[in-house]
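Quick start: load a record and inspect it. Here is Putative acyl-[acyl-carrier-protein] desaturase DesA1:
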Amino acid sequence: MSITSVPTEQLDLFMALEPTVEKEVNRHVATAEEWFPHEYVPYDVGRTYAGVIEGGEGWEPGDSKVSPQSREALLVNLLTEDNLPGYHFALRSVFGQDGAYGYWTNRWTAEENRHGIVIRDFLTVTRAIDPVALERARMQHLQVGYAMPHGTDMLRGATYVAFQELATRVSHRNTGKASGDVLCERMMARVAKDENLHMIFYRNFIGAAFEADANQAMRAVTDVVTTFEMPGNTIDGFLRKSVAIANAGIYDLRLHHDEVVLPILRKWGVFDLTGLDAEAEQARERLAAFLENLDQAAARFEERRAEREARRAARQG
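Running the structure step on this input writes:
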């Protein structure tokens, strides 16, 4: 088994958790449903773009049928999916390429690849987004590269992906709902379903890590939650785009706190654990304080957003 990238202090845990990985792989394969990207793309509405082929038409903002507030989210979602080569390399560096770990890495990558395929095809065919701007953004984003936030640390890497997969599921679902397009919503719901199954794999993996070594797992979870950033944070203009996405209610601090972080922490029972050592207990206290601050920040953002919406409604009234 190739385990050279796993930190030395985690090698025993890496070996101990392989039966869990095999169990979760088997559960995932039995649960996952086969689906085909081409079935979610309305090819009959497509028409040739201006360019190499004579008679094509350039993209215009009026071509898009999705809501303006979802357009930024669709762009961010697709660019995030496009960076799959970087994610695969990072996960393979953590999990290796052999045994159940290696099988999962490749299976996960194969499933994730469908997401970029279907979203790109849909957006291109339906003219939802300027394809020239999209391709330039893709080139720029992928050239930045991707580095796992916690390097080759197995526990922190898997913990990060557990939260990230659930965050992506929430973002995808809400992007589809906000699009105002029935077909777009159906497509994003299909993608989100995959993300949920991926989240369950990583969530259960870390759940087993808590059973094997609660102290290491507790420290890892605190480090990840308190420094969490979405993998698309290197997209050009990400801050502006994320603000627009938050203002639209697609993904904001409240959703991150209530629908992503807390459900997974509850599943692991992090605040019910007993017998932690002093360092792990300090980590849990730091996590609790962070969650309280996050909840307060979410409340402030909701208040400011409501005030902005009230002023906008007053002007329009």
